[in-house]
Amino acid sequence: MREIQIGGLVSFTTIDYPGKLAAVLFLVGCPLRCTYCSNPHLLSPGDGEYDPERIIEWLQERIGKLEAVVFSGGEALMQSDATINYMKRVRDLGFKIGLHTNGFYPEILQRASEYIDWIGLDFKATSDKYPDLTGQNIAYNNMIRSLDIWRATQKPYEVRVTCDPRYVDKDGIMKIANILAEKHVQNIAIQKYVPHFESDDNKTTEAMRNEIFADTQLRNKIDSMFSSVIWREN
Ligand code: SF4
Fold it and tell me: Is 78 left (phi over 0), alpha (psi -120 to 50) or beta?
């Protein structure tokens, strides 16, 4: 069996799994090439820097101190059974399992779902903008299928929208909010875009990045559509 490849670790966080003290594992490999990716060093499959057995030993020492382990990336489900088997091992230690995912692998999410307690799912843009943003034509449909699969589990989750103004404007965020409300999604997070790598001919400005967040009427409207809307501005 192929060993899981782990490219990064955050040993303690209070913000990556709702209400739980958690560690985050960053798995290498991602099928998307988002223009704004902040983890380009994790995109290509290759040897992870971290020994998976050492991390299990480290987690054994954290029992009673940490409550959850979040699998992030890259895209953690790209490693398929290696990820699922490792999730089982971590869960058997007593930790809750979280997953940050772009939703590209609905069938793997289905198989992994019995070992996962919570997910944060990226809804990156409306369908017309997805190919330009992610470099993948099927990413939007896969993400919607993942959302529907996870909703059927009735386990908790959050849908995240990062508002890169080149791909999500005011009209776009309302369309996304309507799609999510129609699907009875309860918890969403709307995240301000933070530029990492922008080409000189396609740069965003602070005013562009603020546009959605400065519109109180728009915010109130979206707030009224869900049980919980988190506006992440930094
Ligand atoms: S899905 Fe995430 S890790 Fe993959 S390219 Fe996009 S931003 Fe980067």
Answer: alpha
